[in-house]
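Extended Data, panel c. Modelled sequence:
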Amino acid sequence: MIIRLIRVELLKVKRSLALLMMLACPLMVALLCFGLQLKTYKTGLIRWDMYWAGSTAIWGYFMFPLYLALITGLLNGNEHRNSTWRLMLTLPIQSRQLFLAKFVLAAVFMLGANLALLFMTSCAIYVFGLLGFSISQAFKFDFVRFMLFANLSALPILVFQHWISWRVQNIVAPLAVGVIGTMGIVQIGQSENWIYYPWSYVMTALNASSADVRHQAIILASTLAACALGILTFWIGRRGVEFE
């Protein structure tokens, strides 16, 4: 049943604003990094490891957490706006199944945004090559590690933002939570208390200098996300669907 629900949800988001945001947010980061790099370097030598580090830092610090708040708000907001929650639940499906299907859909959009960032950053590097810059060392970036660490470390944010946007009809509330959470990364993410702040896990997993710290962020994020998703799914099934 959940597989069928996911297929239905995928059909509903074709040509939607959510799909546009999945491409627009990574594009903004790629263009920003391209412009900054082009303005800074006048020679044909670019530290490509620093270029990738800068791109992932901007993504992990600011754009990615905000994107998760936006995308979950849009995916669930469509149902709130069109008053289709109760219509869907008149079908032979459970609220838990619908909640999980929506979460999987949001996870697909999260994965797609990270893939889009890698693709658009790579395209920007090829443009540098056309402009005469050396790109011989540009693609030694660990793409697999980025995809694994970025998606796993962001799961707690995705779970929490999905639940907020599910419960609250007004899309402003989930976006406000996302903005506040993102603002806290600058202060808490750089302190020893980062382990208590799920919004800091992405940046720590992607850019921490210590491999042990990066792996700790992944373990914390995966454990917290699994526990939170299980508890919230169980809670929704017990209480039924109530929206504020």
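Confidence is low (pLDDT under 50) at residues 240-244. This feature is highlighted in the accompanying rendering.
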